[in-house]
Amino acid sequence: MTLDTLLDIVLRLVALLLFITVTVLALTYLERKVLARIQQRVGPMRTGPLGLLQPIADALKLLVKEDLMPAKVDRLLFWMAPLVVFVPAFVIWVTIPFTRDLVVRNLDMGIFFIVAVSGLSSAGMVMAGLSSGNKYALLGAARAAAQLISYELPVVFAILAVVMIAGSLDLREIVLKQNVTPYIVVQPVGFLLFVMAGLAELGRTPFDIPSAESELMGGPMIEYSGMHWAMFFLAEYANTFALAALATLLYLGGWEGPVLPALLGPVGNVLWFLIKCYLVIMLIFWVRSAMPRLRVDQLLSLAWKGLLSLSFANLFLTAFYRYMGWPDVVMLVVSLALAAGALYVMARRRRATAAHPSVRLVTREELAR
Amino acid sequence: MTTDARPQSTPQTIEMMVNMGPQHPSTHGVFRMVLQVDGERVTGMESVIGYLHRGTEKLAEGEMYRQVITLFDRLDYLANFNNEHTFVMVTEKLMGVKPPERAEFIRVILLELNRIASHLMYYAAFGADTGVFGTTFMYGFRERERIQAVFEAVSGARMMHNFMRVGGVKNDLPANFDAMMGDLMPVLERGVRECDDLLTTNEIFLERTQGIGVISAADAVNLGLSGPNLRACGVPYDVRRAEPYSIYDKLDFDVPVGARGDCFDRYLVRMEEMRQSLRILKQAMKGLPAGPVMATNVPKGLRPPKGEAFVCTENPRGEFGVYVISDGKDRPYRLKIRGPSFVNLMSLPTMMRNAYIADAVVILASIDIVLGDVDR
Predict the structure, then answer these.
(1) Where do the H-state alpha helices sit in B45-100?
(2) Residue ranges in A132-225 assigned as alpha helix (H)
(3) Could you tell me the pLDDT band of residue B127, with boundaries at 50, 70 and 90?
(4) Cβ–Cβ below 8 Å for B139 and A293
(5) How far apart are the first and last CA of chain B?
(6) ipTM of the modeled complex
(7) CB-count exposure of residue A133 (10 Å: 0-12, 13-18, 19+)
(8) Count of CB pairs separated by less than 8 Å, A with B
């Protein structure tokens, strides 16, 4: 290991850390603004022009805040839990390529590495809840454990389907294979599954029962403050961005796009990557603002009965299509049929509710009788 | 090997006491709920109230009748006009005073506006409790703010109006009231429609509210449930129709009645009630007669003759009743308030049988209590 290589690695990691930090700060600002606009408010406006300095104010506040450690906690676990949650969130970024050549270290089993490492943060959440010595944290940890484990499988199966089509676990390869059609066209069901199960993995609405604000006030992270809590916060946003990045790479064609690369070269590619990422992130924020949250048993039944069956079906169909060597359009048609089937089952229930309205208007004559 | 290495078939569990409140983002005021939970299931519940008790009934004994009206504003603080109206009606009953037509119409307009505002607040809080982060709050409050602007123009205050008087109302409506209402009505209609669109057909919302917190009609009647909660169980009892007061028997409106008595029906009944209130408002605005707003035979110092009277009205929360005993002096001898939220709250353990913790919050939100009414 020469000094050059060492310096190279260190510089790449520092650049990545800076990028992640800036992006996470930007995402906190963006979320508040987007949510505010949907709710007909304006969001932060006072800290700096248009509230642009708000994330810096937040970061400074968290840095100087008193970092309490209650007396009843298990000290080692309590101290370690935020690290166990944050480090995987950062480590997976090592393998995510922004363009063909812009990646810290490309692994030829990149996606496998990402899935494996991100599973570790579930353990961190549970550690946080259990070590806090607080009933609410305990409940939150139990819910978080169940949720995070249940939703790993649909995510993995959705990814497996893409890997099957691309024939490689290497993220760069997967994007290069999408130069004709992005995989969302071939795998619409897979994309939906990935985003839904990914939202649940992130612990975001409508799956945010572990940190349900109006019920259990922060769940497993309730006893954390200051920099420890900031770690959880950063990890959640870094994971959100990672989910968006993976969705872009696996389904939306990564860094390829029409006009910009011709105009600006590799910068154009990075811009396309970021644009697609941010589109997915906007979708995630939108869902957060408009959807109620699922109860924990409904959440689990959705994972095991709904998403898992759908992802099995998707995987089986993909495998079959690959085996028969059919053209892409067959996969598209079959996938859309699968999506239509799932939507039909949902619509049937809604029609049942609407057809028998449970509330009727009673007129004055009827009351007099 | 003869040792039985099989573990115990059921692991030992302890029931946990989870305390929700009094300060809690979702207990609608200072209300404490102590839940006994076994895992995620609620096995027992105890409600602790009294955090907002201000001794209204005792205070009223030391105040003149006109001053008591301000106390009533603060009871169910989301339905101020309804409270004032009931007290004013019971005093009018004692004194044998009848307010003029115009005053009655003004009262009904304000009452129904207040009903819409209260149900919008319900919508806001209910949505927030099912997990929509803040969006329902903003949607509900947008229209509510417009209604409160009208209240401010009419009475001078957004919430604690002190506007109703024995024999009429304090002053006439402002000159631009017709224009204001003409602007407001389509906005309210659109607002109710938007609120409806956001939640009512949402799959997740349906999952969270249908079949949750069911109470049978028989149980509801036995427990004294009233208002939209009772009507959601299928009992078509509305005080405005059963014992009509003011000009309600001249107005044309329907009463929404549910079927299953679950959280969803309670929510839907209130959404429909908002539409019916809009209908009443249109009729009241059209039929608003000219004339005085205060009866002429009301003396300056209110001194009802000896006697007792009871009046109940349809509050947005249920049946709000006031019982006054007068001994001929200018202060009430005894005032008893039948607060709908207090009685509705007592049905909570029945509704929470076999609920999850997450459901407990939704059920509490669905019965729409206001702590000012519970604790008085």
Answers:
(1) 56-60, 65-73, 80-95
(2) 135-166, 171-177, 183-186, 188-202, 213-216
(3) confident
(4) no
(5) 70
(6) 0.77
(7) middle
(8) 133
Can you give the length of chain B in residues?
Answer: 376
pLDDT digits 0-9 by tens, B259-269: 888 888 899 89
The DSSP bridge pattern shows strands B255-257 and B164-165 to be: unpaired
Domain assignments of chain A as residue spans, ordered by start: 1-64, 68-339
Q: What is the pLDDT of residues A117-165, one digit of tens each?
A: 888 888 888 888 888 877 777 777 877 888 888 888 999 999 998 888 8
Asked if A76 and A152 count as a contact pair (C-beta separation under 8 A), the reply is no
CB contact (8 A) between residue B265 and residue A359: yes
The domains of chain B are located at: 16-375
Give phi and psi for A168, each to the nearest 5: -155, 150
Phi, psi of B334 (to 5 degrees): -150, 140
Locate the chain B residue with the closest alpha carbon to A138: B39
Calpha distance B226→B237 (Å, rounded)? 8
| A48–chain B nearest CA distance, Å | 24
Residue at A140: amino acid letter: G
Q: Which residue has the tokens 């006031």?
A: B322
Phi-psi region of B210 (alpha: psi -120 to 50; beta: other; left: phi over 0): beta
Alpha-carbon distance A240 to B264, whole Å?
A: 33
Instruction: Indicate the CATH number for domain B16-375.
Output: 1.10.645.10
- Contact criterion met (CB < 8 Å) for A358 and B132: no
Contact of B181 with B150, CB cutoff 8 Å: yes
Q: If you write DSSP's letter for every residue of A112-141 in order, what string do you get?
A: HHHHHHHTHHHHHHHHHHHHT--HHHHHHH
Who among A208, A292, A360 is closest to B208 (CB)? A292
